[in-house]
Structure formats: C-alpha cells, structure tokens
Amino acid sequence: MHTETMTTAESDLDRRWASVLRRHPYWLLATATLLSMARPELTPATGERIAVGALIVAALVLQLWWGRARRSSPGPDTTSAATYFVLRWAISVALTWLAPFFAFYAAAGYIDNNELFSGRRRRQAGAFASSLTVAAAQSGGMPFQSSSQWAVFAGLLLANNALLYVITYFVEHEEIRSAARAATIAELERTNTALQQALDENVTLQAQLLVQAREAGVDEERRRLAAEIHDTLAQGLAGIIAQLRVVSSTPDPATAREHVDRAADLARHSLGEARRSVRNLAPVGLVHDTLPQALRKTVARWTEQSGIPAAFTLTGQVLDMPGEHSATLLRMTQEALTNVAKHAAADRVGVTLSYMDGEVTLDVRDNGRGFASRQPPRRTGAGGFGLEGMRSRAERVAGSLIVESEPGHGTAISIRLPLAPTEQRPVPSRRHGDRDLT
Predict the structure, then answer these.
(1) 45/411 Cα distance (integer angstroms)
(2) Using CA atoms, how far apart are residues 295 and 217, in angstroms rounded to an integer?
(3) Over 163-178, what HEC string results?
(4) CA-CA distance, 93 to 137, in Å (whole number)?
(5) Residue 428's pLDDT band (cuts 50, 70, 90)
C-alpha cells in the first residue's frame, strides 16, 4: 500500500512538471509583456514597439510549432530541440535588447534546458547562453554605455552561472536519487508480485496438506480400529470358539460348565475391550494395573485357556511410559501368545519384560515347531495380523520388531521401544510381588 501511494504521488508530480514544461514559455512571455507595458519609461519608441510586437508574434508561432512537433514525435529529436532553443534564445535576446523586462522570457532556458539537451556539455552551453541575456538585463540593458556597466555585467554573469552550477548539481543528484527510488519501487513491485504468488501457492499447498492430513488421519484411524478389533474381538471370539469346542466334545457336565463359564468371561472381557477401543482408551488390563501386572494376568489367563505352561519374568526397574507404549506392548503380547496357540505346537512359553537404560524390551519365546525366519508364515483366511501387523504396530511408536526362528527350534520375538529421558521415571509398585511373576 505504501509503495502504491508513492507511485501515485510521483506520477502526479510528473504530470504537473510536464504541464509546466509545456506552458512556462507562454507564462514568462506574458509576464514580460505586462511588465514592459506597466513601465512607460522603459517602453520602447513607436518603431521599436512594432518590432517588439512582431517578435512576440514570432515567439508565439515558435511555441505553437514546438508544441505540435512534440505531440507528433514524442520521442527525443535533438535537431528539432536544438533549433527550437536557438530560435527562442535569439528572439529573447532581441526582445531584451528592446525592453529589459523580456529577460523573463530568456529565463525559460533555465527551466527546460535539461529536457531539450541530453549531453552535459550541451546543457551547460544552453544555460550559459540564457545567463548572458539575463545578466545583460540585470546590468541595465543593452547596449552597454560604460565600462562599469560591463564590469557589472561580468559580475552578474559569474554570479548567475555559479548559482546555476549549484542548482544543477542538486538537480542532477536528485535525478540520481529519483532513478534509484524508481528502481527500488520497481524491485519492490516485483518482490510483492513474487511474494503474492508465493502466498497463493502457500495457500494452495496448505489446502493440499490439510486434505492429505485428513486422509492420513482417516487411514490411521482405520488401521487403529482394525488392530483394536483384531486384538480384542477377534482374539476373544477365537477363545470363545475354543471353549465351546471343548464343551461340545466333552461328556462331563462339570467340565462343560467350567468351559462355558470361561467362554462367558471371554465374552464380557471382549465387550469391554470393544467399548474402550471405540473410545480410544487404554486396554482393560491397563485401567487399574501397571504394564507388568497386566502382562502377568494376561500370561496366566492365556495359560489357563490354552493349557500350555507360560512364565512371565520382569527385569529392571519399572519405569513410567506413555500409555500408547504400554498398550502396544500388551497388545503385541496378546497377539504373540495367540499365534503360539494357533501355530507353534509348543509345550513351554516364556514372556520377559525388561526395563533398560533408554529402552524397554519384550521377548516372547516358545519351543514349538518354528519356521524359516526368511520366509515367515503367510497370512491366511483364518485371520490375524501376523508379524507384519506387529511390526507396523511397533513402528507407529518408533519401536522395532525382531523375529528369530528355525524349523524345529522354536521362535523368539523381541519388541524394542525407545524411551525419552523425561519418560524414564521409576513407578512405585501398585502391588507387592511384581517381580515374582512366575
């Protein structure tokens, strides 16, 4: 806005100066004529008055010709400009000779000298020629009658040219400053244009980023819900099916009743997990327990349901962690145990939670059939997120998953989650015996 105001003001000033350049010879000629008529003692005789009138008409004709020449050829024409200046100077000399007040008309060369001539020497010559006429009028008019008048003329000529030099010096420096200002304004306009384009591109990019962020949020929420459903409803339903199979194949009512009760417990547990997953809350096991306590209960429950002996071991001092880290380790333990029950055919399982300097690790080992670790079991239609799903879950919290397995030698899964220094705060045990979890 400030740049636009400066540009508008300078444009108005340029238009006004162009108007002055077009009209100032008329104004100065009219002023000189009126002053000559107002001083009868300086008015020439009758014959000289006719000459003055003829010269005034010639001056007017010359101005009209020059105005038309400028309109027909707005570009620089040094020949026409020099012709116009010389003719005007000659007419002003003749008029000043007849009536000194016409020195006002001769002073027109001071005003448009820089506009008519392009070279520095030509401008100086034009200004000096105009100063000759003005100094002659100031010293009493021509012709000079005495040597003292010549001396006065020389002094006035020197003073006029000294003044012209000073004025020209400041005018030239102002022109340089104006040119620099104009270049700065032009550069600012280009910069503003580029900045506006950048702002427009930034707005467009921001809109694209918002769309991408929204889409990424939707995808992330879908993955979260899929993982939560898999870890809660799918595993709970799998456990219920296993218990009901035992019920359908056993003739003992007491045994059947026991497995029905287990299936009901699993159903209630899965329902609570589903409700909390929708609300994006922590798993049921972490609502009232620490992570080691929740893992101990998970391992004990899995042993009871699968019939496979499993042991939980805790090493290191329990540290405070973000809820998402604890939930990730608990969910991945449940997934690993479910995979063991489905695929490993193991008779012994060990789960170890280790708190170390800067990280926490969770290891799940079994002595089952194992597999070639370079070719992990493919995901089947039976469900399950598999090892890739577990790896993705670990990476979402900046963790990693390492799988070691050989056919006939069991499988070891290790999950490592880094801890920031501010997260490594000891947590007082909520219950006694957290380390005696076997």
Answers:
(1) 132
(2) 30
(3) HHHHHHHHHHHHHHHH
(4) 10
(5) low
Interhelix angle 2-38/108-116, rounded to 10 degrees, is 140
Asked if 287 and 294 count as a contact pair (C-beta separation under 8 A), the reply is: no
Reduced to 3 states, what is the DSSP secondary structure of residue 333?
helix
Instruction: Give the global pTM.
Output: 0.41
Tokens 């009871």 found at: 304
299 has a pLDDT exceeding 90: yes
Q: What is the DSSP string of 144-157?
A: P-SHHHHHHHHHHH
Q: What angle do CA 100, 105, 43 make, to 5 degrees?
A: 30
Which residue in the block uniquely carries the two structure tokens 């089952």?
A: 368
Flag whether pLDDT at 276 surpasses 50. Answer: yes
* Spatial contact of 74 and 115, defined as CB atoms under 8 Å apart: no
Distances from the Cα of 20 to the Cαs of 8, 28, 34, 149, in angstroms? 19, 11, 20, 34
Q: What percent of the chain has pLDDT over 70?
A: 77
DSSP string over 324-336: HHHHHHHHHHHHH
Pairing state between β 400-405 and 359-366:
unpaired
Partners of 354 in beta bridges = 315, 361
Neighbours of 368 (CB within 10 A): 22
Q: Read off the tokens for 102.
A: 């016409």
What is the tens place of the pLDDT at every residue in 307-330?
899 999 999 988 888 878 888 888
Q: What is the pLDDT of residues 337-381, one digit of tens each?
A: 988 988 888 899 999 999 988 889 999 999 988 888 665 555 544
Cis peptide before 418 (omega within 30 of 0): no
SS3 315: strand
Q: How many CB atoms lie within 10 A of CB 329?
A: 25
